[in-house]
Amino acid sequence: MYPIQSFFNSLRERDFLDALDSFAQGCGFSIEGASCSFPVNLSEDLGGREGQYGYIEFWTYSGNQEVRVSFPDFMTFLGTAADNEIAYDPKMQSRIEEKMLAISEKVKGMEDRYRKAHGVIT
After folding, report:
1. Which sign, positive or negative, has the C-alpha torsion 7, 8, 11, 17?
2. Of the given ranges (43-47, 91-95, 106-110, 113-117), which has the lowest mean pLDDT?
3. In angstroms, what CA-CA distances link 39 with 54, 96, 115?
4. What is the DSSP letter of 40?
5. Closest C-alpha among 106, 11, 1 to residue 57
6. For residues 26 and 104, what is the distance between their CA atoms, to the nearest angstrom?
7. Which Pfam families does the annotation name (predicted)?
8. Is residue 122 part of a domain?
9. How many domains does the chain have?
């Protein structure tokens, strides 16, 4: 899962919070050398509708590597990154937890739209 590790390892402090803000708005985030694309970004880049994409994509510029992960897997990777960031800077815990809650709700909505668009019943 190199592109995912590369993306999250490159984020520190302010960039991490900026990425969380972007995720909470339902958008991906790019930094030098790596990006994370959400369905809304994919629909703009690849054409189609947001509900058509049932994954979040990580991509590294060097080596041109990409990996696509499900919405629940994204939340797992993001949760690990958030835990690491909190361990690095414990005073950020409440801000990160607040943003994680908003992201969780946004990602759940994306997953629900994808399921509805594809007739998936849970």
Report:
1. positive
2. 43-47
3. 7, 23, 13
4. H
5. 1
6. 10
7. CdiI_4
8. no
9. 1
State pLDDT tens for residues 13-66: 779 999 999 999 999 999 988 999 999 888 777 778 878 899 999 999 877 899
Residue whose entry in the numeric block shows the structure tokens 């919405």: 71
User: Tokens 């019943």 identify what position?
Assistant: 121
Through-space distance between the first and last CA atoms of the chain, rounded to whole angstroms:
28
DSSP 119: T
pLDDT at 72: 97
- Which residue range forms the structural domain that includes residue 72? 2-117
Helix (H) or strand (E) holding 67, with range, is strand 65-69
CB burial of residue 86 (10 Å; 0-12, 13-18, 19+): middle
